[in-house]
Amino acid sequence: MISIIIPTYNEESCIETALQSVLRHSNEATIEVLVSDGNSEDRTVEIATKYAEVISGTRGRAKQLNRAAHFARGDTLFFLHADAILPKGALRQIEQKVKVEGYDGGGFSNTFSSHNTKIKFLGRLMNFRIRDNDHAGNTVFFGDNGIFVRKSVFQALNGFRDMPIMEDYDFSTRMKRAHRVTRILEPQLLVSPRRHLKAGFLKTRLQWIVIKRLHQAGVPTELLSQWYINVR
Question: Mapped to the 3 state alphabet, what secondary structure does 80-146 carry?
Fold first, then answer.
């Protein structure tokens, strides 16, 4: 079974679409869907309850992901953002990579639902890359890559560290260091450009680059999180 875990906080504008996309392709694998809510103040829980089991508790992405993982019954955990759309074939690919090819975890390449060419071009330009980094050799992931992992591996890594930001990158880095990890190039997850639209394209790309570099340099995530606005 694949346990699909979606963390939420005030996601009434997109959670229904995300959950519908998951259930649309539920025939590809045996799944359960867990929405881990951080005490939303809008209609997120009301909407999500129609489609999934909702687990409510303290807000904080790492806390929410770990909390749902504790209750998950699947042998594979798949962490999906509330503003992501699951494409046809994604669940089948996870099963192929884990059960058939023997990988311990991984993530997807993704594409933005709008302004994709502009956003990816800015990413390459600001990182001084000739091509996009969504290639098979790049196996360190952020949350919008849809990280999946064997539950036994997740437990061995002690889950996500309780960090206000970069918990996904930190977990993915540790997973790659000790286990077999892969990137699924096709199908790609469809993700929202809402942060770019609200905060600005250049500002958002620059934030991502600077925050990642400072995290790698050891700057406390409590400080980094103050520069990353909530777009909900």
Answer: CCCCCECCCCHHHHHHHHHHHCCCCEEEEEEEECCCHHHHHHHHHHHCCCCCCCCCCCCCCCCHHHC
